[in-house]
Amino acid sequence: MRPMADDGWPAGDPRRFFDGPLDPAHLRESSPNIFRRATWLALGVVLGGGLIALGVWAVTDGPWWSVLVGAVALVVGAGLLAGGLLSGNASKPFRGGQLVPGLVVEQADADVQVLVLGDTSRDPAAPPAFAYRLVGFRAREATRFVPGQWIPCVMHGFAGPPRSRRWWSFDAAPVSWATGDPGVVERAAAQIPKAEWDQLLAGVERVADIRRRWTRLLRVSYEDLPVSLRRPPTRLGVPVEWQPDGRARFVGSVSDVVSA
What we know:
Elements: H1 24-30, H2 33-60, H3 64-86, E1 99-108, E2 111-119, E3 130-138, E4 150-159, E5 169-174, H4 182-190, H5 194-202, H6 207-212, E6 217-219, H7 227-230, E7 234-235, E8 238-242, E9 248-250, H8 254-258
Antiparallel strand pairs: 1-2, 1-4, 2-3, 3-6, 4-5, 7-8, 8-9
């Protein structure tokens, strides 16, 4: 499994993509991703650079086993350096990310766990492939999360092999990290269909099972979904008709939905 730079397929209407104003100062104070990027940069530059230097020395001045160790150090060091330099900044998830429902299920001191429901399908003509994902992070002092709190989130960090029709995993970031304006957060929550909020609530009883999985992800059975989520009226923001074989046929355009 490798992280993908591609955006995930949207579940429906394009207006579900977060397009609110970002507050850079609030983002720095509220998002733990600021520290994650700094950590990766430090590991990449310091540790990765050190391993590369050690590898070059070992390859050019040593016996065969030293050359082997040096080659391994070069590969690991280059990987750490590339990972540090390519790590995404804290604002990246909110640059047009898809809105999804989230529910705080655990809060212990600063450690928070949020249950998220997201569509992992990468095939626009296929039915949605919803999955629960348990996202954990360490809350900053400028934020407040309490168990039972409903929070709109933005999907990002999709991972999966190129040929897979479904993402194997994804990450999510609360909209409240990007802005301190409660009106923006409320509008983001209102863009998520009620059926998805209801389905998320149904997944609370599965949290213990999800927590035991190393992926922290549990796919929702197609039979457990309501009809409105099995066969939504739009895919990629375009009206569709569902065929007997279970595939969607596009019958309109994005402009048809936006103008409606």
